[in-house]
């Protein structure tokens, strides 16, 4: 790419696959690069990579979604120490520059959902400072993944916006669509490796998107009528009662969901942390780390009050809650986004088969047929 | 902008026993500037941390008209409250807030006010009552009805006397079960409705207490002609963040901690999921 060619948002470039390693190497000079790689035991996983050659460019989306890099399962919010003058509370922020490579479209959409939830109304600075230290590069999906239904959620297989850079695998080359100034920065780091895309490159990308869209089969999820029913109290209580015994209350759907972010706040002894704060004047002084910790609306203790009263003690009430939050028009109007990006992880993780497509179908048809075979 | 979930340090000024398991704590932010910058409405709440133990929401029991100290009244019923009850003057805690919407005091200026509280439900109304009494000429008649399980469960006993003696304030108390020496009313709070002159047309009612008490009181008030938008109450759920993020206290698409905890009965009626 020539700098004067001007990689403005909306502009499109191409890099050969041979040059990808060189490009990633240059990105690593200024930032951690997080990308999918294959673990020694054969699972796809997102992690900080040192060897650009280990990055996967053709992969099934990892079961563990990328949200833990933006919203860690246990996230330090503040260090609490005590000295002669009393308690000291210091905010903790993580703003290391990071590039997240090869996010699938659904996951990128999930991250945008998370950002919106933490930015609207009262902005959560801890989250936003960490999130905004990332540059997000998505890799468009040229074929549907086995369990995905992003096409029903406006979350793929290709994205129109929201990415800093969107890549498309064209075979021997990779096409890069610039979506922001941050994305332009990544292209500039690849100076000499990228060339402006030709009309033929762009046409090929469009073909791939059309092909991908046509390849979705029956495994889709019809939110429209489910949303109408859930939002207007037209789901009979007996339906939730019928589905509830199938849910094992493991919380796996919440943990694997790219858009779930319910949390609790706890003080953990700082000794439990590897990076001991250096601020404590006295090694024996009390020291805790206030942490945000993932929680699950499917656990009965989630709504348990100190008095012992629990408004959602019944499992069906908790299931109903989960799907109201994800699929109701009330939330859709409030948030402007559906709470599901169609990644299919809940389908993969739920042993009880009360996953998003199954429950949406049950709500739509008004009857539960016992999940998938 | 400071981090949303990070508290500031405050000191306990003093503490006072209310009942065998309930105490009122006087608090002040350690940094004077932080204390002066702290403004709130009655009915809002604080997230109070006992460092190393945890954080929990407590209603502001003091009045904005008396800003020199912040007061919370706390019943011992869990980890944070157990730990808080072991602390005393000079000890430090963390505070975040104010959180929630609070009562709209200005909208009831010139109106008659009816306060109906049950048990530990009086603290959220106490801030509002002092706010009203400190600006007495701006409001109409004030009626306070307060019930608890037993005479020893009544909180703010000294203040109840002061309110009863105040000009233009009618105060009635009742207990579910009497004790030796108790010569007052016995029965649930609604028994007091027939002892006072209720003027549904000109009165806004503020109801706070255990859910079952709120239910009966609100039904009674509606039957007596109070409009659904003139019966105000506070709702409770398990709260964690207090700032509308963590999803613990949601009812439908509303956060009780952010859209509430104060709602009119007309609003409560529309809440479902």
Write the topology of this structure:
The complex is a heterodimer of chains A (373) and B (273).
Chain A: E1 12-16, H1 20-28, E2 32-38, E3 44-48, H2 67-70, E4 74-83, E5 86-91, E6 98-103, H3 105-119, H4 125-131, E7 134-139, E8 165-169, E9 173-178, H5 181-189, E10 195-196, H6 199-214, H7 223-231, H8 237-243, H9 252-256, E11 263-269, E12 287-294, H10 315-327, H11 329-335, H12 345-349, H13 356-365
Parallel strand pairs in A: 2-6, 6-7, 7-8
Antiparallel strand pairs in A: 1-9, 1-10, 2-3, 4-5, 4-12, 8-9, 11-12
Chain B: E1 8-19, E2 22-29, H1 32-37, E3 45-50, E4 54-59, E5 70-75, H2 79-85, E6 92-99, E7 112-118, H3 122-134, E8 142-148, H4 157-165, E9 169-175, E10 185-186, E11 203-208, H5 211-223, E12 231-234, E13 250-251, E14 254-255, E15 262-264, H6 265-269
Parallel strand pairs in B: 7-8, 7-11, 8-9, 9-10, 11-12
Antiparallel strand pairs in B: 1-2, 1-6, 2-5, 3-4, 3-6, 12-15, 13-14
């Amino acid at each position: 790419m020539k700098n004067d060619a001007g990689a403005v948002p909306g502009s499109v470039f191409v890099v050969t696959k041979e040059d990808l390693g060189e490009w990633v190497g240059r990105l690593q000079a200024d930032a951690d690069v997080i990308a999918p790689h294959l673990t020694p035991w054969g699972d796809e996983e997102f992690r900080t990579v040192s060897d650009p050659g280990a990055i996967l460019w053709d992969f099934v989306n990892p079961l563990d979604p990328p949200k833990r890099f933006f919203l860690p399962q246990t996230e330090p919010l503040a260090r609490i120490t005590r000295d002669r003058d009393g308690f000291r509370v210091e905010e903790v922020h993580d703003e290391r520059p990071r590039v997240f490579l090869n996010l699938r479209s659904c996951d990128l959409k999930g991250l945008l959902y998370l950002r919106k939830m933490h930015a609207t109304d009262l902005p959560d600075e801890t989250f936003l400072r960490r999130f905004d230290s990332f540059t997000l590069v998505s890799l468009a999906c040229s074929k549907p993944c086995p369990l995905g239904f992003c096409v029903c959620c406006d979350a793929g297989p290709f994205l129109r916006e929201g990415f800093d850079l969107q890549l498309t695998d064209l075979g021997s080359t990779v096409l890069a669509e610039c979506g922001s100034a941050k994305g332009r920065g990544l292209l500039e780091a690849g100076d000499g490796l990228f060339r402006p895309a030709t009309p033929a490159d762009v046409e090929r990308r469009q073909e791939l998107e059309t092909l991908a869209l046509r390849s979705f089969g029956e495994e889709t999820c019809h939110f429209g009528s489910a949303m109408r029913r859930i939002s207007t109290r037209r789901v009979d209580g007996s339906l939730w009662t019928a589905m509830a015994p199938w849910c094992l209350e493991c919380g796996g759907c919440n943990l694997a969901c790219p858009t779930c972010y319910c949390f609790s706040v706890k003080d953990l002894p700082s000794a439990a942390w590897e990076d001991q704060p250096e601020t404590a004047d006295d090694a024996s002084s009390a020291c805790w780390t206030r942490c945000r910790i993932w929680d699950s609306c499917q656990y009965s203790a989630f709504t348990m009050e100190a008095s012992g009263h629990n408004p959602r003690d019944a499992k069906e009430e908790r299931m109903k809650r989960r799907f109201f939050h994800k699929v109701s028009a009330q939330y859709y109007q409030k948030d402007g986004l559906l709470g599901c990006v169609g990644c299919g992880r809940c389908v993969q993780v739920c042993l009880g088969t009360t996953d998003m497509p199954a429950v949406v179908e049950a709500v739509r048809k008004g009857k539960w047929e016992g999940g998938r075979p | 902008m400071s981090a949303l979930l990070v508290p500031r340090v405050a000191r306990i000024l003093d503490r006072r026993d209310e009942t065998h398991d309930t105490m009122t704590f006087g608090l002040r932010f350690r940094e004077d500037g932080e204390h002066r910058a702290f403004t709130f409405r009655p009915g809002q709440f604080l997230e109070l941390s006992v460092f190393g133990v945890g954080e929990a929401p407590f209603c502001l029991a003091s009045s904005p008209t008396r800003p020199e100290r912040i007061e919370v009244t706390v019943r011992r019923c869990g980890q944070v409250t157990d730990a808080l009850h072991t602390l005393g003057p000079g000890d430090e805690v963390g505070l975040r807030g104010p959180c929630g919407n609070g009562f709209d005091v200005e909208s009831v200026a010139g109106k008659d006010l009816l306060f109906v509280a049950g048990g530990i439900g009086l603290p959220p109304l106490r801030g509002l009552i002092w706010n009203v009494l400190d600006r007495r000429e701006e409001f109409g008649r004030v009626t306070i009805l307060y019930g608890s399980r037993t005479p020893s469960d009544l909180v703010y006993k000294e203040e109840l006397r002061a309110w009863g003696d105040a000009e233009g304030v009618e105060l009635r108390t009742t207990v579910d079960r009497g004790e030796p020496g108790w010569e007052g009313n016995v029965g649930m709070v609604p028994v007091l409705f027939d002892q006072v002159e209720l003027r549904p047309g000109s009165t806004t009612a503020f109801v706070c207490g255990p859910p079952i008490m709120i239910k009966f009181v609100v039904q009674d008030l509606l039957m007596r002609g109070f409009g659904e938008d003139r019966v105000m109450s506070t709702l409770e759920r398990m709260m964690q963040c207090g700032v509308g993020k963590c999803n613990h206290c949601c009812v439908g698409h509303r956060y009780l901690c952010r859209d509430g905890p104060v709602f009119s009965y007309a609003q409560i009626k529309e809440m479902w999921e």
